[in-house]
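Hey, I was hoping to borrow your eyes for a little while. There's a protein on my desk that I can't quite get my head around. The fold is given in discrete form, as structure tokens running alongside the sequence. I'd be grateful if you could look everything over and explain what you see. Here's the protein in full, and shout if anything looks odd to you:
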Amino acid sequence: MPTPVKMPRLGESVAEGTIGSWLKNEGDWVEKDESLAEIITDKINAELPSPIAGRLTKILVKVDETVPVGADIAMIEENADVSASPPAQAAPGPDAAPVKNPEQAATPVIEQSDTSASDGAGEAQATTASQRRDEEERQRISPLARRLAREHDIDLNQIAGTGAGGRVRKEDILAYVEQRRAAPAAVSAASSYATTVVEVDMTNIARWLEKNKEDFKRREGYSISFVPFVMKAVCEGIRKFPMINSSWTEDNKIIIKKRINLGMAVATDEGLVVPTLYDTDQYTIAGLAKQISAIAQRARTNKLTLQDMQNSTFVVNNPGTFGTIISVPIINQPHAGILSMDAVVKRPVVIEDDAIAVRSMMYLCLSFDHRILDGAGAGGFLQAVRTKLQSYGREIDVY
């Protein structure tokens, strides 16, 4: 009996999915967990692995067709005799040359007995080489990526694939389109960038971390650092100055975002990525530490989803982890701003009554789009962030 392949549920609130492309044709053999189709939902795009090994006997849902979660989309025939591997080649006849592997069986071999035969062999070899190149190109570029490239008139030779073996994926095409779209806006906005810096006394937070971070990690199973404290303060600053949580559109409008979704710059072996923490203002400091740990782990193990890389409204950057003391970040367009937190460093400062004390100090640097915010608004936001960070006493409730 054929086994049905069903439309998966890619997200708790997802009720339907669309076939972006079929990666196998009817009659093809497919291994267990081998990619069968690309599925598109309003939450994520993903490749659907085959639930079993067998032959794809029937495709029930066409490309671009949308069906409910759980609907049958294909049928796979599982043969108990060949479930672990593709069907074997037919046994050779007594006069046939032995075949070492299936690929050799599929490649024609032509004897060169005279000039005409040699010409024929050359044509056959050229055809085979062309077919091989076509197949290699088909494997290098996913069908959905190829279709998007046609829609956006993109030369695929300009795209560096990030999939396995350099495979060009849908995400690569969309990233290229976004980069191409944002380039003119970035140039036109370059003259509108501005930067302001404040110094923050992080002494009480530093003392709390020094005293509690090891116990916190043993108890919770993840680390806590200065970052969730800064993110929490940024959320309070955004509530007081909501214009910092907006974007500039191509038709010269400002859109203020209702949700606070903070992007967080993460350094990986492949480069810098900026995944998103959704509804950041809804978490406690401990909750933020958990979200930061989880998304950083996904980033460094190449397990970020498409949703992880979308919908940020403001970015917090932490170059201080590399020891920088002052850094000027570049705005992630079309955001209104980006905040860099540099290293927390002990140094002598003047406190009350002109006394000099050693305090743990940190610079916060805000780059902002002057078309959206003026100096007063940017300064007010930074002041709100600094006030929150300096408001903590020696005992801090992170829950």
User: Anything to note?
Assistant: Residues 3-77 form a domain with the OB fold (Dihydrolipoamide Acetyltransferase, E2P) fold (CATH 2.40.50.100). The chain has eight helices and 19 strands.
